[in-house]
Design a protein that fits this description.
By secondary structure, this protein is α/β, with parallel strands linked by helices. It is 26% helix and 19% strand. It has 15 helices and 22 strands. It has helices at 12-22, 138-141, 161-176, 203-214, 224-236, 305-314, 328-339, 450-453, 457-480, 484-500, 502-505, 509-523, 528-548, 675-678, 713-732, and strands spanning 2-3, 9-10, 58-59, 75-76, 104-109, 113-115, 120-130, 146-153, 182-188, 192-200, 244-251, 294-299, 319-322, 342-353, 359-362, 370-373, 378-387, 391-400, 413-426, 432-436, 440-445, 554-555. Strands 6, 14, 16, 17, 19, 20 and 21 form a seven-stranded mixed sheet that branches. β16 and β17 (378-387) form a beta hairpin. α9 (457-480) runs antiparallel to α10 (484-500), α9 (457-480) runs parallel beside α12 (509-523) and α9 runs antiparallel to α13. The longest helix is centred in the middle third of the chain and has 24 residues, at 457-480. The radius of gyration is 27 Å and the shape is globular. The two termini are 20 Å apart.
């Protein structure tokens, strides 16, 4: 099969006659789009590098007249015994590393002060790490090149529309890789084959990679083990190594060749057949084998989410659930956007008790390994890679003793809590970097005012994130035992706790997003059949995102369709990334002009916040007299409290949606279908490309992208680019 740039696919036999007639001006016989890469010849995918880029690895059966007569897959040459035929690396440019920014560390105690006489058994300090940005100018000269292997399912169930969409997504990925990046393509059905050796993405490399992708045919069974083993082999046996390596793995089914069907509630035994580079054995001690992250994509409702999540989790990758086939390109775009913006490697966060009696009790670090040593006086978190602008936040739970002689009349006494530092390898300069944080202290007073006792909202927000992650994980375990009612109750209880927390009551946006995500997870656990078709995968994709604090595609929402402003971060300046003097994010207009919620930051005028009047009226647009956020009630709900975020009292809607709409479907006052992507006030079905963050939640065009707090600007920008490419291609049809 040959798939053209316009996404139409043809048998080689059928299209051969067309080119015989018009070989110097090739065009699509369906939509008349001019083809830049017609299937005149096939490149050498398997053999070692050669000066002849048109040498064919395929052997086509021909008739006596020389025309191709086999309408399916061409006969392939045998693979080399060892995959040491990768392209040499491009010599790094001599661009200056002077002025490169470093990772920043910030530590926030949960309270401003403690009574001198008070002994606290559980006192929390939030430690926040943020990677430096990657400017548009530096994306080509300063970013780290990548070795990427795509392992693609081409079993019989992938035939037709699914395979065409996958080829289109791969073409987008190929176009986004630069000449320093290298790509290899592995396909698998009953067996696995390396379709394209690890090659640099020069113009010729891109052309050859696309031809390899276009040659894919769907047939046979599903051998996940062989596909991943082949993908790992490509990276393990390469002669040269780019700084970043990863596997992108997509499948729409279960492994039917290594043990058959099994209980989906636990990973299958055949995972032990995978190499330790992608499925390291737990508790096996230190290993010199480098782990290769596997970013797994479950395609449709028949894939194996338990296995794919287990593989991605063990290899420090991510698991995404692509519910709608049309989303595959945007899902790949989000992942690639992150991989092409890696800034640090081997990042390690270390902390040490700074006072006698202050002990480190626990470090809930999600997927990242952590340990507490030296009699609870030292702690370490192993984080690894950070994408540009990526934020990782960890809660460090301490015990803090009372002061000796608490009644002394000193005006200012303090307890030193933690010394914090981090170390990592700067992937651009290749230098080892060590950074120390300011000493974390807390004021001790004879008496503490109520305001000083109030919990810090950033700390509370992270507690909500952990609460959501724990609720989803617990609910997923209950659902696997068949207790769907208990699973839904667990999620409902978790939501209630989040909305009742200090951050939830203050209208914290991340807490609201967490609650809505848990609500959607609960909805997908409505019945055994629904859970098996979509709920299991949705929950596991959510667990992957929360555990790694990294965006994943879930259901009908594309990962990374978040803020495109480089200054975005919850709790930081310029709320939700809105520009101070221009259109801003979420479709807000400049401060002087209306826009969403009135203009400026979420439409706020220069003196207001989130739509408040310039004179500094109420929060979230409430009147100075406190008439309620967004017009009354709880964060905009009707005064009777029936709605949420401005929803009508009858419920149904959320964030200002009409009562009949589902969660996020109206999107902060948007008409049904506008959603986050449509841009807070967008009309029904608005795609918002450039005015929001892609399409509506399930309703907008090109992927149904939605806001995600774990998304980085690089991921968001790549998703927007993918949507623009898709729109351009669709407009040509």
């Amino acid at each position: 099969m040959y798939t053209a740039e316009c996404s139409h696919s043809f048998h080689f036999t059928c299209i051969n006659n067309t080119f015989a007639i018009n070989k110097f001006n090739p065009f699509c016989p369906i939509c008349s789009t001019k083809w830049n890469n017609p299937p005149f010849s096939m490149p050498n995918f398997y053999n070692a590098p050669s000066n002849n880029n048109n040498q064919s690895p395929f052997i086509f059966p021909t008739s006596s007249f020389g025309s191709v007569i086999d309408e399916c897959r061409p006969v392939l040459e045998s693979e080399p015994l060892q995959f040491s035929d990768d392209d040499p690396l491009l010599e790094p440019s001599s661009s200056s590393t002077v002025g490169l920014q470093k990772v920043t560390i910030e530590a926030i105690p949960e309270r401003e002060a403690l009574a001198a006489s008070e002994s606290v058994s559980l006192f929390t300090v939030l430690v926040k790490l943020k990677a430096p940005p990657l400017s548009a100018e530096a994306r080509s000269s300063r970013r780290a090149p990548i070795d990427l292997v795509t392992v693609l399912d081409v079993s019989g169930s992938m035939h037709g529309y699914k395979l065409s969409l996958l080829k289109r997504a791969m073409n987008f990925v190929i176009d986004e890789l630069g000449p320093s990046d290298r790509l290899s393509v592995v396909s698998f059905n009953s067996q696995a084959r390396r379709m394209f050796r690890l090659s640099r993405m020069t113009d010729a490399g891109r052309r050859n990679a696309k031809l390899a992708v276009d040659s894919l045919c769907a047939s046979g069974q599903t051998n996940i083990v062989e596909g991943l083993k082949k993908g790992a082999q490509v990276l393990e046996e390469r002669r040269y190594k780019n700084p970043v390596s990863s596997i992108v793995f997509l499948s729409d089914g279960n492994d039917t060749c290594n043990g058959g069907w099994y209980s989906r509630s636990s990973p299958p035994v055949y995972l032990s057949l995978l190499p330790p580079s992608i499925f390291p054995v737990k508790n096996s001690g230190p290993s010199e084998i480098e782990t290769i992250p596997v970013h797994a994509f479950g395609f449709g409702s028949d894939h194996d989410p338990v296995t794919m999540h287990a593989i991605s989790d063990a290899s420090s990758g991510t698991f995404s659930f692509i519910e709608s086939y049309e989303m595959v390109q945007d899902a790949f775009a989000s992942c690639i956007g992150g991989l092409l913006s890696v800034m640090t490697q081997g990042l390690r966060l270390s902390m040490r008790s700074a006072s006698h009696g202050v002990e480190i009790k626990s470090i809930p670090s999600g997927r990242y390994s952590s340990e507490i040593t030296d009699g609870e006086s030292k702690g370490t978190i192993h984080i690894g890679d950070l994408y540009a602008d990526e934020v990782k936040e960890f809660l460090i739970n301490l015990s803090v003793p009372a002061l000796l002689n608490p009644n002394e009349e000193e005006t200012e006494r303090k307890t030193s809590l933690l010394d914090i530092a981090c170390s990592y390898k700067d992937i651009v300069s290749k230098e080892a970097v060590e950074i120390e944080c300011d000493l974390v202290e807390i004021r001790r007073a004879k008496t503490v005012s109520p305001s000083e006792m109030a919990v810090n909202l950033e700390v509370d927000r992270q507690r909500n994130r952990l609460r959501a992650a724990e609720s989803i994980a617990e609910a997923q375990k209950m659902a696997e035992t068949g207790d769907l009612f208990g699973a839904r109750c667990t999620l409902s209880k978790g939501r209630t706790e989040i909305f009742g927390s200090a951050a939830g009551q203050a209208g914290d946006s991340m807490s609201a997003w967490l609650g809505a995500d848990m609500k959607e997870t609960e909805r997908r656990m409505g019945s055994v059949q629904q859970y098996q078709q979509e709920g299991r995968a949705f929950a596991l994709a959510g667990m992957s995102a929360h555990g790694a604090q990294r965006a994943t595609t879930k259901g009908k929402t594309v990962a990374g369709a978040g803020p495109t402003d480089d200054n975005f971060s919850f709790g930081l300046s310029r709320a939700f990334g809105a520009a101070s003097a221009s259109g801003g994010a979420f479709g807000a207009a400049a401060p002087a002009g209306g826009g969403a919620f009135g203009g400026g930051v979420f439409g706020a005028a220069p003196g207001g916040a989130f739509g408040a009047a310039p004179g500094g009226g109420g929060l979230f647009g409430a009147a100075p007299s406190g008439g309620g956020a967004f017009g009354g009630g709880v964060i905009g709900a009707a005064p009777s409290g029936g709605g949420v975020f401005g929803a009508a009292p009858s419920g149904g809607g959320a964030f200002g949606a009409a009562p009949s709409s589902s969660v996020f479907s109206g999107g902060f006052g948007a008409a049904s279908g506008g959603g986050f992507g449509g841009g807070f006030g967008a009309q029904q079905g608005a795609a918002a490309l450039g005015g929001g963050f892609g399409g509506a939640y399930g309703g907008g065009a090109y992927g149904g992208a939605a806001y995600d707090p774990y998304a980085t600007p690089s991921m968001a920008n790549m998703v927007v680019k993918s949507q623009q490419v898709s729109k351009t291609m669709d407009d040509k049809k």
